[in-house]
Amino acid sequence: MEQKLVEFFGVFGVVVFVFLIILAVLWFLLPFVIFGISNKLNELIRLNKSIEGNTDIITNQLKSLNNNLRNLTDKEIDNSKPD
C-alpha cells in the first residue's frame, strides 16, 4: 500500500512539475503576446476610423444625390401638370 502511495505521488509530482514548467514558459511569453496584439489593435482602430470617414463621405454624397433626384422628379411632375 505504501509503495503504491509513493508511486502515485511520484507520478503526481512529475505531472505537477511539467505543468509548472509549461506555466512558467507561458507566463514568460505573455507580455510579448500582449504587446503584439496591442500594436495590431491600434492598427485596426486606425483603419476603422478611416473607414468611418469614408462612410460619412459616401453617406453625404448619397444624400446629395437623393436630394437632386427628388428635385428633378418634382420639376418633372410640375411640368407635366396641365395649366
Describe the structure.
The structure is a single chain. Helices cover 95% and strands 0% of the residues. It contains one helix and no strands. The chain has 83 residues and is mostly helical.
Provide tags for this entry.
rod-shaped, mainly alpha, 0% strand, single chain, 83 residues, 95% helix
Write the layout of secondary structure elements.
Elements: H1 2-80
Q: What string gives the helices and strands in order?
A: H
**Uncertain ranges:** none
Shape: rod-shaped
Write down the overall mean pLDDT.
87
Q: What structural class do helix, strand and pairing data support?
A: mainly alpha
Main beta-sheet annotation: none
Strand content: under 5%
Helix content: over 70%
Count of individual helical segments: 1
Instruction: Count every beta strand, where a strand is a DSSP E run of 2 or more residues.
Output: 0
Distance N terminus to C terminus? 113 Å
The gyration radius over C-alpha positions equals 34 Å
